[in-house]
């Protein structure tokens, strides 16, 4: 039996000790928001927070989680009210959506560490998260929007016109 | 957690009766029952037609019968219906249609959803709106011309009273569907949903992790399967050593998959499945499994050697595809000559979500949940492997974590069905990334050879182009060993130039892997070769690339390649409706030069490159700016212009164009699948890299405003990318790259 904190609640699971946290979350706890993309820490689809740090759950054996605190996309803000989620909505970021749980969890961790990242800092932190659909330009823009809204108290109102002002009709 | 449908006791509501087909193959309203198919909902709302039902609280359920894989179709299709319905968009609820022949084709590929269903979806909306208006007129006891629908209400023109769609829905559902020719449609200038950047309907769930993809499906009592598949196409299982695998905690069973023969079609590959109580146990069990293979003929296939062979044959005469004048003679007489051979390796889709399918089988039928691009095909394939009738197979379509063509193949659905039958339990088949990279349906390895002759005054007098690649058709008919007209119609036989002496030829190229279609298909290699060669000819002629294109395209016209001997399929659309319109091609080219300011001076080691391509009936031009410093290529900026006719959702068009730029960059910079001893060498993202954020440029996308018929969006952005990039690299560094990927020559 392994005990840990999951999305701010006590959790315990019975699993082989080498089972990656990813499969414990997805198969046993049925939290499928955390995605499987590569299984070898190459794509970031499985990103969750472990004691506040972004980690790849596909290579993190459950035995290493004992007593620690895990946060998944489901535990971020179920009402999608986190400034990062709001920025994602504002920029209409996702295409297929599959990588986005991991992208958002990485972005949240980045902004907790560096509240005002420049392009290089964003590139460096986010390059572990692949998006096969190619939403990088919007992810980058959304991270900047989220940084702004986290750094001010102003209410970020949803505006999709704003989100699509790159390029125009000709 | 899902409970499978009780297939024996399905209620009448679960089925839909239909007959007859309209021009699009779908049915307006319900006609005389002749066949049973699965219905999309079991809801008790009032159905107005196959696509529209309305709840008492005015929720408007609109069916999307196409698969969502990131292109935004679950928003686009309902936008069209809601527009003509005069619905309140905030009340729209999108229902994913099940596999159902009544919808017409659900095969979501070929960038065709909008062009094939624009008219039909307007009819669905207009028909339902007419029924609601009739219901309002009936309620007020006035004639129907005294009412109109607006934003979710029917309004009485005389009294200005309003009744909500919800209030009228039941009454409306009893009114017979109007005849198609009685329908009236909105004028485009009055559109307020079509043409608007409506946010995608799945957005709120995509940001909190509650969407469901094929990999996410959970069914009560299910087990998990991972399959060791034949390393070589056609290889057969000789022996299996199961003991170690069975010792892995959680492993329940080892199943040898039924042996398949050529052609490969969508049949599961030969292999051995490990079934377990969770994914990790299945993966571990698979590692402990030992399978001995009878590898067969394809074990001799070596992609490097194969490409060298094709490159040798491509410089010789081939089989004529299209011909004007006498290109060989003209070339001989030409003052200046130029030639280039261009190669593209095998590529694989690598969608972010590897394929996955879950199946339940019992005596009465089968239920499937799959991230499929083509639910009706999945239904037929599964019915085939289980010996059932298609209507005994219920196919639920999840969201797709990317498709790009991979998920319109049904091998993974068939695997789930076979294993569910075998185990008598719900089974989820999980493909790992390694499975996805090693057991795909590959984009063909290819060689293109171009030769041009120039006159004294540097105008082009002769043009010869050849192509060779293993055909997709081989996947379905293993006797085929040369490119088909369908594939040659993807940027080769339909190339848009008017030259007095023009010759297009093809060469044979036998297949040794499963060949499939990947986002923009053969336009990838043909767009790369043509766009690169035009740039080379431009340089030889001392002209700008733009000038060269304009010269080769000639005057504005609708080009007819059929008169030049090529049987052009035009993406299955009539050439009268969707001509090869040279003026539109020139327009996007000129626009991209202007928007990117391509002719402005750049810093040293920096340069712009451009290319343009018509595919999927759309016109796209791309400008790419790079820097090349100390052997390192950096893509700095990309500008693209698309003319895709009428646009439903400009924001999704832009996002598709952004995605296409990045998809094209992944291919051009790093995309390479090698085959040694018949086996794919690469296995995961470390050796089949996908573009990452630090490699991703700034992208600007422009849409040509147009009332022309809607054309493709998902794919046509990809073909011009590689050429625009290689042209930029040449200008920045002096190095011409003719063999993709670029990372063979530069760090990227
Ligand atoms: S699944 Fe963990 S990094 Fe890809
Ligand atoms: S949105 Fe599809 S992989 Fe990122």
Q: How would you describe the overall organization of this protein?
A:
The complex is a heterodimer of chains A (170) and B (748). Chain A is an alpha+beta fold and 170 residues long. Helix content of chain A is 36%, strand content 12%. Chain A folds into two domains: 2-76, Ubiquitin-like (UB roll); 83-169, DNA polymerase, domain 1. Chain A contains seven helices and five strands; from the N terminus they run E-E-H-E-E-E-H-H-H-H-H-H. In chain A, strand 3 (47-50) and strand 4 form a beta hairpin. In chain A, 58% of the residues are buried. Chain B is α+β, with helices and mostly antiparallel strands. Chain B contains 17 helices and 31 strands. Chain B is globular and about 80 Å long. Chain B starts with 14 loop residues before the first strand and ends in a 15-residue tail after the last helix. At the A-B interface, helix 1, helix 2, helix 3, helix 4 and helix 5 of A face helix 4, helix 6, helix 16 and strand 31 of B. Bound molecules: FE2/S2 (inorganic) cluster (2 copies). One FE2/S2 (inorganic) cluster sits between chains A (94-100, 131-133, 135) and B (70, 352, 402).
Identify the strand order in the major beta sheet of chain A: 2-1-5-3-4
The percentage of residues in β strands of chain A lies in 5-15%
Tell me the name of the CATH homologous superfamily of the largest domain in chain A.
[2Fe-2S]-binding domain
Inertia-based shape of chain B: globular
CATH architecture of the largest domain in chain B: 2-Layer Sandwich
> Uncertain spans of chain A, ≥5 residues at pLDDT below 50?
154-166
Report the end-to-end length of chain A measured between terminal Cα atoms: 62 Å
Organism (chain B): Paraglaciecola algarum
Keywords (chain B): Signal
Protein name (chain B): Molybdopterin-dependent oxidoreductase
Pfam families (chain B): MoCoBD_1 (PF02738), MoCoBD_2 (PF20256)
């Amino acid at each position: 039996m392994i005990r840990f904190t999951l999305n701010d609640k006590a959790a315990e699971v019975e699993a082989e000790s080498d089972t990656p946290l990813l499969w414990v979350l997805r198969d046993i706890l049925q939290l499928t928001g955390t995605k499987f993309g590569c299984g070898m820490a190459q794509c970031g689809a499985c990103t969750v927070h472990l004691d506040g740090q972004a980690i790849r759950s596909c290579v993190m054996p459950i035995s290493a989680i004992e007593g620690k605190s895990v946060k998944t996309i489901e535990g971020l803000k179920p009402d999608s009210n986190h400034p990062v989620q709001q920025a994602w909505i504002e920029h209409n970021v996702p295409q297929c959506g599959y990588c986005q749980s991991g992208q958002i969890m990485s972005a949240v961790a980045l902004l907790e560490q560096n509240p005002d990242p420049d392009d290089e800092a964003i590139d460096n932190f986010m390059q572990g998260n692949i998006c096969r659909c190619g939403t990088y330009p919007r992810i980058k823009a959304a991270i900047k929007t989220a940084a702004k809204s986290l750094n001010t108290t102003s209410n970020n109102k949803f505006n999709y016109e704003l989100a699509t002002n790159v390029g125009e009709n000709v | 957690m899902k409970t499978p449908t009780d297939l024996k006791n399905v209620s009448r509501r679960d089925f839909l009766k239909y007959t007859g087909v309209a021009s699009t193959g779908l049915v307006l309203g319900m006609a005389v029952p002749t066949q049973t198919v699965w219905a999309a909902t079991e809801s008790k709302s009032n159905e107005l037609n196959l696509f529209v039902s309305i709840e008492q609280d005015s929720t408007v359920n609109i069916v999307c019968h196409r698969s969502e894989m990131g292109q935004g179709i679950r928003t686009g299709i309902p936008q069209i219906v809601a527009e003509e319905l005069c619905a309140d968009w905030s009340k729209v609820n999108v229902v994913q249609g099940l596999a159902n022949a009544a919808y017409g084709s659900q095969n979501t590929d070929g960038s065709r959803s909008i062009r094939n269903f624009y008219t039909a979806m307007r009819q669905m909306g207009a028909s339902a709106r007419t029924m609601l208006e009739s219901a309002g007129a009936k309620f007020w006891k006035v004639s129907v011309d005294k009412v109109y629908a607006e934003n979710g209400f029917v309004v009485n023109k005389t009294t200005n009273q309003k009744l909500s769609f919800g209030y009228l829905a039941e009454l409306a559902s009893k009114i017979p569907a109007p005849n198609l020719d009685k329908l009236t449609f909105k004028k485009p200038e009055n559109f307020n949903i079509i043409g608007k950047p409506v946010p995608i309907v799945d957005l709120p769930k995509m940001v909190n992790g509650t969407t469901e993809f094929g990999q996410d499906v959970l069914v009560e009592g299910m087990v998990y399967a991972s399959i060791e598949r034949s390393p070589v196409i056609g290889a057969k299982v000789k022996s299996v050593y199961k003991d170690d695998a069975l010792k892995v905690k959680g492993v329940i069973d080892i199943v040898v998959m039924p042996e398949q023969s050529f052609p490969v079609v969508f049949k599961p590959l030969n292999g051995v499945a490990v079934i377990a109580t969770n994914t990790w146990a299945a993966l571990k069990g698979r590692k402990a499994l030992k399978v001995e293979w009878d590898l067969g003929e394809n074990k001799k296939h070596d992609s490097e050697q194969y490409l060298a062979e094709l490159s040798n044959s491509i410089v010789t005469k081939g089989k004529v595809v299209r011909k004007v004048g006498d290109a060989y003679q003209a070339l001989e007489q030409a003052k200046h000559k130029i030639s280039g051979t261009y190669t593209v390796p095998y590529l694989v889709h690598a969608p972010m979500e590897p394929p996955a399918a879950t199946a339940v089988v019992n005596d009465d039928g089968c239920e499937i949940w799959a991230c499929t691009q083509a639910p009706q095909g999945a239904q037929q394939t599964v019915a085939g492997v289980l010996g059932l009738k298609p209507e005994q197979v219920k196919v639920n379509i999840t969201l797709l974590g990317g498709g790009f063509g991979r998920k319109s193949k049904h091998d993974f659905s068939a695997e789930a069905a076979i294993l569910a039958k075998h185990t008598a339990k719900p089974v989820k088949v999980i493909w790992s990334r390694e499975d996805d990279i090693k057991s795909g349906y590959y984009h063909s390895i290819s060689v293109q050879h171009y030769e041009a002759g120039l006159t004294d005054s540097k105008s082009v007098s002769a043009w010869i182009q050849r192509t060779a690649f293993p055909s997709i058709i081989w996947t379905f008919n293993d006797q085929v060993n040369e490119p088909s007209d369908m594939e040659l119609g993807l940027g080769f036989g339909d190339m848009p130039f008017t030259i007095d002496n023009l010759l297009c030829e093809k060469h044979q190229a036998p297949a040794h892997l499963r060949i499939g279609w990947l986002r923009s298909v053969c336009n990838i290699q043909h767009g790369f070769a043509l766009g690169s060669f035009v740039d080379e000819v431009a340089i030889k002629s001392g002209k700008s690339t733009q000038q060269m294109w304009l010269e080769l395209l000639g005057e504005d016209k609708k080009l007819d390649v059929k008169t030049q001997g090529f049987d052009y399929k035009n993406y299955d659309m009539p050439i009268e409706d969707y001509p090869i319109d040279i003026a539109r091609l020139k327009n996007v080219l000129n626009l991209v030069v202007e928007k990117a300011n391509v002719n402005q001076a750049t810093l040293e080691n920096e340069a712009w490159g451009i290319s343009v391509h018509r595919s999927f009936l759309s016109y796209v031009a791309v400008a790419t700016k790079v820097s090349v410093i100390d052997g390192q290529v950096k893509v700095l900026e990309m500008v693209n212009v698309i003319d895709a006719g009428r646009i439903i959702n400009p924001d999704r068009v832009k996002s598709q164009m952004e995605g296409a730029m990045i998809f094209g960059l992944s291919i051009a910079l790093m995309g390479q699948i090698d085959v040694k001893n018949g086996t794919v060498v690469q296995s995961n993202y470390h050796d089949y890299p996908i573009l990452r954020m630090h490699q991703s440029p700034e992208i600007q996308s422009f849409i040509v405003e147009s009332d022309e018929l809607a054309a493709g969006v998902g794919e046509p952005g990809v073909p011009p990318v590689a050429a625009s990039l290689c042209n930029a690299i040449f200008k920045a560094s002096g190095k011409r790259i003719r063999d993709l990927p670029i990372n063979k020559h530069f760090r990227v």
